[in-house]
Amino acid sequence: MEKILVLGAGTGGLVAANLLASHGYKVTLIERSDTHLFQPGMLWIAFQGHSPSRYTRPVKDLVRPGVELVKGSVAGIDLGDRLVYLADGRIFTYTTLIIALGAQLDYEAVPGHRELVERYGDFYSGAQAAARMWSHLRELVRGRLVIAAADPLYKCPPAPHKAAFLAAHTLRRMGRLDSVEVHLALPFLHEYPSEVVARIVAPKLEEAGVNVSTLFTVESIDVDKGRIYSLEGEEIDFSLAAVIPVHRGPSVKVEPGEVLDEDGFVKVDRYKLNVEGYDDAYAIGDASNAPTSKTGVTAHLGAEVVVDRIMGLDSRFNGRTNCPIVANGEASFVISSYDYPPVPVKFSRFKRMLEDLFIASYWSSLKYPERWAPIFRAYFNATDPRVISGGW
Amino acid sequence: MSERITVDARGMACPGPITKLVRAYRKASPGALIEVLATDPGFKPDIEAWAKRTGNEIVELSEEDGVIKAVIRVTGKK
Ligand SMILES: Cc1cc2nc3c(=O)[nH]c(=O)nc-3n(C[C@H](O)[C@H](O)[C@H](O)COP(=O)(O)OP(=O)(O)OC[C@H]3O[C@@H](n4cnc5c(N)ncnc54)[C@H](O)[C@@H]3O)c2cc1C
User: Fold this and answer.
1) Which domains, from first to last, does chain A contain?
2) Per-residue DSSP letter, A125
């Protein structure tokens, strides 16, 4: 009998499990946490003071009948014997496996990082950490808020930009933008990894009153002195700082080890998303090494491709991204695919409305992905980088 | 002999190769050599700009059969 096992009830895992259930499959979904966090919500909690409860839901409320939810922590996967081991000793077998365990954050790579997060919070380490950041931001009367990253590879490439825009907006509304500097320190050559996007976002950052340093990759943090040192040999002083942690693949032992790359991400066929060398196991979303941005959109689209493939359809993932850059009252999207580098997408209020619609649809799109599929498909086709290659 | 690290970023598009290089650079000791293999055509100007701004030396930058090879000596670290 067919036994489909999905690991992780994040964006990718929930879409995959619920979509399979909508087609009548029986699915087992293993998740260690009781709650699902809408991760972009951390930006709004940390920099605009939104309540964490707006962005969290019990996982059990997000799964459909037909999905058996198992609470447990995955410790190991044996691809040869088709076994999944949980930390408490339980063992699961499968005929098809979907790995959707996301990325893990490494606070040890940068000295002082753990202490920084414990003291000030950030916008990556969970809803509580984001609420901690907000409690410090609201007290910040003068000085410098630094938003930085410990590595150029992290989920949602425009997240630090969004953080800076939202923080600057809040400080302006508090009447403090003259006494508090918002400083965005990026590990890239330009204001964004893609120069096309950098040219669009740089003037907006300037307009918002955000100062930017490029080629600043955090090497270490002295929390007591309030100073961040970069790998490139520079330093910045801060009154308050949030540093995006180094990302690694899921903390799970996988046999054979060769299917993981040197950072622990699962090596996949970038189009079919099956684990390299296995046609009965897939990896989607942040856990995979597919050479595209790590975002909820790619996890969602990857889940759709994998479900199609399980049904016998020859769907392929094209690496499509749609990362929103939210600025004051406006938004742009970073739109690219494996074959197309990011196209120029101007900021507009209409795109901000689209992004707000995507956010509002989030919970429903996790639980009922098939209802949203035609709407998303229309959007993705209309904004295919080939279609809007001249700009949008 | 100095430490030599190889970074294979073939098949990765921007900003992939530089990302991989930065990960290796974090761990490298002063004087070490880092060899990066990439296929993304944007890698050549990017690595040149990166080396210039971070004070690291490009020992070799060549292209063969669509594969760009860059060898960097870590001179920008104290
Ligand atoms: C600040 C911020 C802003 C963002 N903004 C956007 C945005 O605007 N648009 C966008 O598309 N994306 C955005 N993202 C990225 C997006 O949230 C992630 O890329 C997406 O959640 C990835 O989905 P996933 O299913 O791969 O992993 P996740 O959603 O991270 O899910 C992984 C799941 O696996 C579980 N898990 C992990 N290990 C184990 C284990 N050992 N055992 C059992 N369960 C385990 C976790 O608890 C989690 O539920 C943002 C992220 C952040 C942090």
Assistant:
1) 4-32+72-103+249-316 (3.50.50.60), 107-247 (3.50.50.60), 322-392 (no CATH)
2) S
Token readout for B29 is: 């000791």
Rounded to the nearest angstrom, the minimum Cα separation between B19 and chain A is 5
Q: What is the pTM of this model?
A: 0.96
> ipTM beyond 0.85?
yes
Chain A environment of B50 (Cβ under 8 Å): 189, 215
pLDDT of residue B19: 87
* A193 touches B at CB < 8 Å: yes
**By the 8 A CB rule, do A63 and A24 touch?**
no
Q: Which of A79, A68, A88, A87 is nearest to A3 (CA)?
A: A68
Residues of A in contact with B26 (CB under 8 A): 109, 151, 217, 219, 231
Element (DSSP H or E) covering residue A268: none
Question: Which residue shows structure tokens 């609201």?
Answer: A138
Q: Give A284-306 pLDDT, tens digit per residue.
A: 999 999 999 999 999 999 999 99
All domains of chain B in start order, with CATH = 4-62 (3.30.110.40)
Give me the pLDDT at residue B13, please.
66
φ, ψ for residue A352, nearest 5 deg: -65, -40
Q: What single string gives the DSSP state of each residue in B48-70?
A: HHHHHHHT-EEEEEEEETTEEEE
A275 in Cβ contact with A266 (< 8 Å): yes
Lining residues, ligand 1, CB within 6 Å: A 8-13, 30-33, 39-40, 42-43, 73-74, 100-102, 123-124, 155-156, 159, 250, 252, 285-287, 294-297, 299, 323-324
Measured CA distances, A44 to A13, A186, A390 (Å): 24, 20, 32
Chain B partners within 8 Å of A153 (Cβ): 19, 23
* CB contact (8 A) between residue A189 and residue B49: yes
Please check the confidence at residue A339 and state whether its pLDDT lies above 60. yes
Which atom of ligand 1 lies closest to the CA of A286? 26
What is the three-class DSSP state of A202?
A: helix
The answer to whether the CB atoms of A215 and B78 lie below 8 A apart is: no
Q: What are A75's two structure tokens?
A: 């410790």
